[in-house]
Amino acid sequence: MTHRIALIPGDGIGLEVTPVGVRCLEALARRPGLDFAFTEFPYSCEYYAEHGAMMPEDGIEQLRPHDAILLGAVGYPGVPDHVSLWGLLLPIRREFQQYVNLRPVRLLRGLTSALRDRGPEDINYLVVRENNEGEYSEIGGRLYDGLPEAMAVQATVITRKGSERILDYAFRLAQSRSRKRLAYATKSNGIKHTMPFWDEQVAAMAPNWPDVQVDGYHVDILAANFVTHPDWFDVVVGTNLFGDILSDLGPATAGGIGVAPSANINPSPDMPSMFEPVHGSAPDIAGQDLANPIAMIWTVVMMLEDLGEQEAADDLMGALETVTAEGRVLTRDLGGQAGTREFADRVLAELKG
Amino acid sequence: MTHRIALIPGDGIGLEVTPVGVRCLEALARRPGLDFAFTEFPYSCEYYAEHGAMMPEDGIEQLRPHDAILLGAVGYPGVPDHVSLWGLLLPIRREFQQYVNLRPVRLLRGLTSALRDRGPEDINYLVVRENNEGEYSEIGGRLYDGLPEAMAVQATVITRKGSERILDYAFRLAQSRSRKRLAYATKSNGIKHTMPFWDEQVAAMAPNWPDVQVDGYHVDILAANFVTHPDWFDVVVGTNLFGDILSDLGPATAGGIGVAPSANINPSPDMPSMFEPVHGSAPDIAGQDLANPIAMIWTVVMMLEDLGEQEAADDLMGALETVTAEGRVLTRDLGGQAGTREFADRVLAELKG
Ligand SMILES: CC(C)[C@H](C(=O)O)[C@@H](O)C(=O)O
Ligand SMILES: CC(C)[C@H](C(=O)O)[C@@H](O)C(=O)O
């Protein structure tokens, strides 16, 4: 079975870590019955500099026939975020209705947590972020711009359909785990309209999942508990913005942003999902073989799982964690000496056995 | 000079920690030239149960003639947040235009950080939260409620006036500190209208403060950096919601919510400011002499500073930190054995010398 993979290396360290992901996939493809067809797309800030857009007008259509999209990182100094992100990353998430942003937070063996006295057994949860609506809306604008009376208004929109589908995903995921716990982020004590609505969806669905223990936390307290009680968490679901904050905070306690993977999932087989490390393009370290490829390798693991290739996924994750546990070859952000390529070589050697 | 203090003990552990604050003030008032006149207000969830409102209709008017309001905590199981908070806490913040919510994050000597290898020299910053507008607005509602098409919409409103005054406060504060650094939280890469507007206000004001080093962070990364690089921060300013999240997260790294103080400040002398611990009413431990009074004592220190009583403030803070540094008498949340009263007694003994 050939999986059609669209590659978008993007900018900065995206150009260094994406090839690592491809090397892992190619190594796995030596196995009988597993194959990948790669198509590379140059959509990036560099593309923007040449063409005045982050991708061509039919960019989404070109990506559509693939089974998955693997993205490195997007962003470049001088190109404003609203161009680079709203011109590429966010349209892909939305056009393909990738309404689940799944971000595991797990301290890999051998890595040191920024939290005192916390080890791999304490930090192992999944952040499920709503990825299509909520606080990231295009609705809003300004009044009296340039005058002392100026103001900006922005609408958060939470729909029943949008919250039901992400909550359904989160409940299902919690049900599948041994601890069966679901924490949800809210702020219904301060945000009067959208957040009580969100809470009501949770309350309405909970009885359908009698095995799942549901706990609501206001997002401020939840963030605090990621630091003081990471062991309380199993599956954590939040709206777009809250999920964004929590899924950067979690990794900060688990080896840093350089190791954090993510999947933008549309569970339907009709549309491609997109897989990307949580880290950005990191222009300050780009091109120097300094990037930590762990996030990308782990992201590839998530892609393999989504493609139904569980065995390949397990093998790659096993190789990765053997190398981190061993602790001899690590990149500088983790206190080691290795470059991007040397680390990747070590994982590939381990994978081949 | 007699300072007129309105006391609102509120609910739960508010009823235990507010008397500790009063005892500290009474001890300080034995000094010549310092005096307090207390008026207690029973506004609380219990009051609500009797009167059907958290405070009487003229509650705000009754509070107005005071120099400061000292609040314990509000909230009780069974009374929904929108009643207890939007009926008392939030109207006080708004009617008195307490647009600054100032929340110090500092690891007191003797306390242990939840962060690995971090001591008091690493964690010492001030979160300045916009307290009157932004994401906490009453604007919004529902469409198609009860139907599959249901949705809720909520407006975030950021005004130039509202952001200028909080930023002015933050710049001024940064200028007054030895490190002179100001970090601001944004999310202009995802939230298209209000956040770029906020960024523009910062950019427009920065040239007026040439000594202050200004750094912008998206709130997701900022939260992560509170864990990985707390030593980077000096003054941190954010909108209402972002400030809320960051000011719970910060304390989680600095001894926990039980030690975190806050001040809701209107810098003009015409309206009272309100001082309250960050913690809530904690019904689970209420009435058992288990509450940590550090947050309240530190909150009283902030109140004294705001009232211009710097010497009294310094003495009380000195006594508090002598006791924490000594580490013999601490409450259970900090690994000690002491009750609320015993800890308070120890601080008062230290204060009297
Ligand atoms: C209780 C709640 C409305 C409040 C807030 O979010 O402002 C609290 O979390 C705080 O930080 O004072
Ligand atoms: C770059 C930005 C728009 C994006 C987001 O907030 O979604 C990023 O922070 C992420 O988490 O993928």
UniProtKB/TrEMBL annotation, chains A, B:
Enzyme's top EC category: oxidoreductase
Classification via SUPFAM superfamilies: Isocitrate/Isopropylmalate dehydrogenase-like
One protein family per Pfam: Iso_dh
UniProt keyword Transmembrane present: no
InterPro entries: ICDH/IPMDH (IPR050501), IsoCit/isopropylmalate_DH_CS (IPR019818), IsoPropMal-DH-like_dom (IPR024084), TTC_DH (IPR011829)
Residues in the signal sequence: none
Keywords in alphabetical order: Manganese, Metal-binding, NAD, Oxidoreductase
Membrane among keywords: no
SMART domains registered for this protein in UniProt: Iso_dh
Sequence similarity: Belongs to the isocitrate and isopropylmalate dehydrogenases family.
NCBIfam families noted in UniProt: TTC (TIGR02089)
Protein name: D-malate dehydrogenase (decarboxylating)
